[in-house]
Design goal:
Length: 421
């Protein structure tokens, strides 16, 4: 089990002029290298809890333990410089260019100029932005998604062990948000930071978290567990209501496209003429073939009618491939792509955009059936363990023993998340 990096012990916060505490007697442990997501309804105290960790808000009572030391009364600036912080509004300094924004904390820590420049270029590259193109730009010259990437880069500038993220993708359109979530999970697979992540969206919590703490009013923990266990066994009526309907769809965010058996699907590569495409259709068991360009990127769906009756060139025949999913995308991403594609299928590509295969609704349904069966088996093991514990007069396990955190993290962020070939 990973070591505990952060502890909140009996932490409370009551704002001046308020009788009721925003956070009341909260005990919380955060393990090194995990993503803990705080999720709950508006006003439950999750953002206050996050800010208590780095003492942007001072606690009214209780202790904050970081790396085994009580940091409740140390210099708060020193504590904050050990923790990156990313917020929904991004918080970039508008009068500073991107380089100057990223350099903020390293400068405060006394880094030399060459190290700061090297770090800024490295981080921009890591979040998918060309340093030569963006270092001298100002925040107003960026899109929302680009600015959020810079916000993450700035939070990582001094290589902190801890990242605190408050609704970091909440103000971005759904498509960009999904891409940033996937990219961030790829980064985390490499960096293994300890992350506390606040969201109001249970779907985002399930996708991002190694563990989830569902909070009710005053940051009281309604359930703290792995996403799998929370979806399979909500602890109480509050959690059930907060999860809402569609637990099966939420569970699709726990599995990745790479976990599917992606079948071979007929393809034709450019340059291609009509006889070549018709021959491929004759040999295929399907009604469609996927047309690939010279770099093996999928560009068109072709059927016999489009090929035989079309007056356009092959490269303009059929229907365009408008949506593709990558191997590290979730099954929910894949399902949404299938719905948008209108074909009941989705093209799978590698991280460089080259063709890998096609998944169908049938393959997705089979994976869902396997996932449900696995969850039932794991819960049966958990219940048997709980019964044995009760008979022996010891505490029952609070986490399903078969749902090991490291296994979950590996399955979600495994080596293939860094790209497939």
């Amino acid at each position: 089990m990973s070591e505990t990096l952060i502890q909140l012990q009996g932490v409370s916060k009551t704002y001046p002029g308020s009788k009721a505490p925003a956070v009341s007697d909260l005990d919380l442990e955060i393990k090194k290298g995990e993503i803990l997501v705080l999720v709950g309804p508006s006003g439950c105290g999750k953002s206050t809890t996050l800010r208590l960790i780095n003492r942007m808000i001072e606690p009214t009572a209780g202790r904050i333990i970081f790396e085994g030391k009580d940091v409740t009364n140390v210099n708060p600036d020193q504590l904050r410089r050990q923790m990156g912080y990313v917020i929904q509004q991004i918080g970039l300094f508008p009068h500073r260019n991107i380089y100057q924004n990223i350099a903020t904390v390293p400068r405060l820590l006394g880094w030399n100029k060459s190290d700061i420049e090297e770090r800024a270029k490295y981080l921009l590259t890591m979040v998918g932005m060309d340093p030569e193109q963006y270092l001298s730009r100002y925040p107003k010259e960026l899109s929302g998604g680009q600015a959020q990437r810079v916000g993450v880069a700035r939070a990582l500038a001094a290589d902190p062990d801890v990242l605190l993220m408050d609704e970091p993708f909440g103000a971005i359109d759904p498509i960009t948000r999904d891409r940033l979530q996937n990219e961030f999970l790829r980064l985390q697979a490499e960096l293994q930071k300890t992350i506390v992540f606040v969201t109001h969206d249970i779907d985002e919590a399930v996708k991002m978290g190694d563990k989830i703490a569902i909070l009710r009013e005053q940051s009281k923990v309604a359930q703290l567990d792995t996403p799998t266990n929370i979806l399979a066994s909500p602890a109480n009526a509050f959690v059930k209501e907060f999860l809402g309907s569609g637990a099966l769809l939420k569970g699709l965010t726990l599995e990745r496209v790479r976990d599917l058996d992606i079948p071979q699907y007929p393809t034709v590569s450019l340059p291609a003429d009509r006889p070549k495409v018709l021959a491929a259709l004759e040999q295929a068991d399907d009604d469609w073939v996927v047309l690939l360009d010279e770099q093996r990127r999928p560009i068109r769906w072709l059927d016999r009618e489009a090929v035989e009756g079309g007056k356009s060139s092959i490269a303009q025949s059929g229907l365009p491939v408008r949506v593709a999913v990558e191997s590290d995308h979730t099954l929910r991403d894949a399902l949404e792509s299938m719905i948008r594609s209108t074909y009941g299928s989705a093209v799978v590509v590698n991280t460089d955009g080259t063709y890998r295969g096609v998944i169908t609704l049938e393959a997705l349904a089979e994976m869902v059936r396997k996932t449900e069966a696995t969850a039932r088996d794991e819960q049966a093991v958990y219940r048997a363990e709980a019964r044995r514990a009760a008979a022996a007069g010891v505490d029952a396990p609070t986490v399903d023993p078969t749902a090991d955190l490291a296994t979950h993290a590996s399955a979600r962020n495994g080596d293939t998340a860094k790209g497939t070939s």
